[in-house]
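Form 7-S
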Amino acid sequence: MLHSQLYTEEGTLPNVTPNQFKLHNQEVKVTYVSNGFQGGPTFTYDDGQVKSFKGAEVRVLQTEIGDLVSVTLQLTVDTGSTSYSVLIPAINLPDTHAHQKFHTAGIKTVHKTFLSPPPKSLIESYHVDKLEGTAQSVIVPLTAGA
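Output:
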């Protein structure tokens, strides 16, 4: 989301929407930038093995409780996939230099395909992470060389 160009009388931007969210707990680190590389979203997941995603690989679903941001960590033809989602709450910052600490949830979901589970089995299972982190507004280059 781009910042509003409406300035207050003091010359500051009112209610800046953050575009970078850095989250972590003892097991996982996540960085989500809503308008990262070439204006599209970027998402980095680190559980000891770093995986990076950009553009259409990052799925954002707007809900009444915040943005649900998801990526596919692993995809196999015969057994299914594993995804990771974080819930990003609506946050307003007073200016472009501010940051806001917050707590949220990250959810690792194992999706089994119809080929892998036996009949009458659990198709999806969840592991919920309690995450803490910060939201801030950063200027992101529009190209990799910038």
